[in-house]
UniProtKB/TrEMBL annotation:
Kinase recorded as keyword: yes
One Gene Ontology term of the molecular function aspect: ATP binding
Pfam families per record: PK_Tyr_Ser-Thr
Listed name of the protein: mitogen-activated protein kinase kinase
Source taxon at top rank: Eukaryota
This protein's UniProt keywords: ATP-binding, Kinase, Nucleotide-binding, Transferase
EC number: 2.7.12.2
UniProt KW Acyltransferase keyword: no
Amino acid sequence: MSLCSDNEHNLRKILVGMKKQNGIGDTTLGTLGKLLWKMGKLGLAEKFYERFVQELLSNDPSLITLYADLGDITSQSGGYDKSIWWHKKSVEIKEQNSGCDDIKKKQSKDLLQISDQDLKLYDELSHGAFGTVYRAQWLSRHDIAAVKILKLIQLDQQVENEFFKELLVMHSVRYPHIATFYGACMEKEK
């Protein structure tokens, strides 16, 4: 899809400048929709976005942003019910795309895989319904660590998905007076 011929250098320069300003890459219906949105042409922007959505696969991760943008556009034009509908679709796609396989890939890339043999447990710090937290020695790093051992009767897919989501959330927390989360021991008891 091209907006202008090679002979129309002025239009090309304007489009390239607008794409840089808006942080947009390739020219797509979504690009045109975003530019129309920025220009205040909400009805046209919505049409371009909706058409672009129809061209994508139903599980395309870019739908998360497109649906959220459609929600914002329809909200600005006064379509609040439709706006909520688009934002719900964005959340649904986000949840679909954060399945266990994606979470496991992210977890294995971002988190350390710590062997339980690399930890020596000392004092119990606290316990709850799901497990116990111990003060431990991280042997290979010569460091003190807090270790949570989960007590699971059975590990089904839903529990495993929730576990990986919790790991990613814990890993993203960085505050000066809170222990840093480094990784997980994924070994099963013998």
